[in-house]
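Why do we bother with a discrete structure alphabet at all? Because it lets us treat a fold like text: something you can write down, compare, and reason about line by line. To make this less abstract, here is a complete entry for guanylate cyclase. Read it the way you would read a sentence in a foreign language you are learning: slowly, and without expecting to understand everything at once.
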Amino acid sequence: MKSPSIYLTGIDENGCDMIYRSDRTGFIPYIKGLLKRIGQDFYGITSLEVKVMENQFGSRHRNTGVKFRLNFNNEDYIQAEHIRSHPHKVGRLRSVPCFQLLELFPFGIMINNTMDIMGVGEKIVQISAVEYSLLGQPIHDHFALRRPKGVVFAWNNILNLRNVMFELELNIEKIKEEYDDNETSPKGEGKTILLKGQMKHIEDIQAVIFLCSPVINDIDELTDRGLYLSDLNQHGLGKEMAMAGWQHNSKLEMLFDEAEGKSQDLENNYDLLDSWKKRSDELLYSMIPKSVADRMRGEDCIEMCEVRD
């Protein structure tokens, strides 16, 4: 059973908007009462008003997505955030070009508000070998969202979940097929590579940069991807984790999803086989009596034909 997900989508002086997602249904009254109790016991908010703005269900009513509106006096928090974001004693910091961030994070990706790729790091170019072909392309064409699960890979969701760890899957094999006519080809032989990191919003240019590093199981996988230990980020514990083999959980989850997809394809093929078998039976029964056809299934066809003669 998966744990529920709760996050805020908007904060103002009169309260905030909250999204609640869960695989279980029927807990809306409980969540409303829990929020009121938390506000009263921990924050001294006695006049908290909780309203249900939207109530959406997923496939077969298994997933619940509820948008709550929490009305309360939130002026103190807004003022504190304004002071924090506009300090009086500290001057404005010097601007940093985006390409320097991509140098620090060679696997980084820049996305604009239309979900198109604005820039990629050096190592993304190395493993895909199609730098200019990726620029300006929709990110959904080459990257799949692995985490957080159950969330649409859209601009608003990225802004709302900036404090959540993201995992994107780069489909190298698909890029290889699309640009097979080019003289250059991807260096790595693996079909996919996982990128794990955090989304950072750049308000000046209305873009998001994905500061990430690849999820590598061990040193052997580096060579399979056409990478070296020095290609990993210079900061953090990425190199140590790759040498110790601590990042296998995400890989196992990806393999499990692939196996689950193959199992679903096999189930669909069995359903298709049953449908074709049913159609063949209907065709057979339209040509000869059903009793004769059933006897032919269990007896020798030659003997059956002699009996009919």
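What the structure line is telling us, in plain words: The domain at 5-85 is CATH 3.30.1360 (Gyrase A; domain 2). Residues 248-287 form the longest helix (40 residues).
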